[in-house]
Design brief:
By secondary structure, the chain is an alpha+beta fold. It is 42% helix and 11% strand. The longest helix has 20 residues. Bound molecules: FE2/S2 (inorganic) cluster (FES) (2 copies). One FE2/S2 (inorganic) cluster binds next to loops.
């Protein structure tokens, strides 16, 4: 079994195109020519970082504010946008995105899905967690153009079309979990993703499952109680 550090490391590596063996996605793509996207669509992590550095951006808790000017500045310099279609919450949504644009940015600022929160904007806090093909990902560290032909689920897409809350959302209401709740969408999405692989977790297993998420109010005990109730609600719903 992997240690918590190994799991987080692999998960974060995956966000940046690095697999469990430490190989970059570019290396793997060389092995499988069919997986190579047209060159004009690919942006390496180096390009992404370069874009941030060119904008003179220092690491900051408010880095997303600076990223706005960086992205706009790059657009003005002719980096260009292209129209992409992505499947978000079961709907095909079209947006003009820059090559270096993150999914979190597109969701919040192009598609109006502000339930996905931006905390650190650097794959540390998990507040931007969404599901991509049922697997939790940090949306701040996924480039939007890479999710074409994949299914993105955000907190807005969890409830049924009739407005019935997802069992995990209901668990939060039942237990009155969270304080300020800024971290809540990320925790819920991480939990929903984890419960798909382990629908009947122990408390410590679920804590491990959402260990990639941070709460600045440090309300972890109550959060875990709410998520455990959510898991119980899910099992009841599937047995009904
Ligand atoms: S905002 Fe994405 S991990 Fe913190
Ligand atoms: S409840 Fe405030 S950040 Fe988690």
């Amino acid at each position: 079994m992997q240690s918590r550090e190994e799991t987080i490391s692999i998960r974060r590596g995956a966000e940046f195109g690095i697999d469990a063996r430490g190989e970059t996605r570019e290396m793997n793509e060389k092995e499988d020519p069919k997986s190579i996207e047209p060159r004009s669509d690919t942006v390496s992590r180096r390009d992404l970082i370069k874009g941030v550095i060119v904008g003179g951006v220092a690491v900051s808790s408010a880095s997303y504010l600076f990223r706005a000017s960086t992205l706009l500045g790059q657009s003005a310099l002719g980096m260009g946008e292209r129209l992409v279609t992505i499947d978000v919450n079961g709907q095909l949504r079209r947006a003009d995105v820059m090559r270096q644009e993150t999914l979190a940015w597109t969701l919040r600022h192009k598609l109006g899905l502000t339930g996905t929160k931006l905390g650190c904007d650097r794959a540390e806090c998990g507040s931007c967690t969404v599901l991509i093909d049922d697997v939790p990902h940090y949306a701040c560290s996924v480039l939007t153009h890479t999710v074409r032909n994949r299914k993105v689920l955000t907190i807005e897409g969890l409830a049924s079309p009739e407005g019935k809350l997802h069992p995990v959302q209901q668990g939060v209401i039942d237990e009155q979990g969270f304080q300020c709740a800024f971290c809540m969408p990320g925790f819920i999405m991480a939990s929903v993703g984890f419960l798909k692989t382990n629908p009947n977790p122990t408390r410590s297993e679920l804590a491990f499952g959402v260990s990639g998420n941070l709460c600045r109010c440090q309300d972890y005990d109550k959060i875990l109680t709410a998520l455990m109730r959510g898991a119980e609600n899910m099992r009841r719903a599937s047995n009904a």
